[in-house]
Design a protein that fits this description.
alpha+beta; about 180 residues; single chain; three-stranded antiparallel β-sheet; 7 strands
Length: about 180
């Protein structure tokens, strides 16, 4: 499978003479609507709109941004992973971890809304998994639009498996 810079993969199915293009987004932006898969609509709507100060907007969006920044910091922590050039994106395979951490953070707005034991366990699992990523024990998928720099330092290394000595001479340089 060949992947282009736009995140489009070419995969040749057996018996098919032409490549089939498939969009594969490896990194995504978490939206408020993603949280409906992890919390019932009534609870999420209450978290978005209850106990707001005059002029205050939906606080869930700010919490999503904070959790996204935390996850990106953990990803870059090992120095082995690349980050997406889009600062709002995280690897698609970390979506559920992000959502559980967002729910844990947003729940503190309404103490009467208690997380279930399973939700607490899943948020704790997410924290442990992110620690493993930061230590370099777990690799994450590379983004389609990788960047090095910004607020994070990313380094890469190369191991030389085999090398050979080259002799440079006048004879070997003929023709240049």
């Amino acid at each position: 499978m060949n992947q282009t810079s736009e995140g489009i993969s070419e995969e040749i199915l057996s018996g098919s003479p032409t490549p089939i293009k498939i969009f594969m987004a490896t990194w995504i932006t978490i939206q408020t609507s993603d949280l409906y898969d992890y919390l019932c609509a009534t609870q999420l709507n209450a978290l978005k709109s209850t106990a707001l100060a005059p002029g205050q907007t939906n606080p869930v969006d700010e919490i999503i941004d904070a959790v996204t920044a935390r996850i990106r910091a953990e990803i870059s922590g090992s120095g082995k992973n690349l980050l997406s050039a889009n600062g709002a994106q995280i690897p698609k395979d970390l979506k559920s971890y992000a959502c559980y951490l967002i729910l844990e953070s947003v729940q503190t707005r309404l103490p009467s809304l208690k997380l279930t034991a399973d939700q607490i366990r899943l948020a704790n699992d997410a924290k442990e998994y992110l620690k493993r990523i930061a230590k370099g024990e777990v690799p994450v998928s590379a983004p389609d639009n990788a960047t090095i720099g910004g607020d994070f330092t990313v380094s890469a290394s190369c191991d030389v498996v085999h090398s050979r000595a080259y002799c440079v001479s006048e004879k070997s340089l003929r023709g240049f």
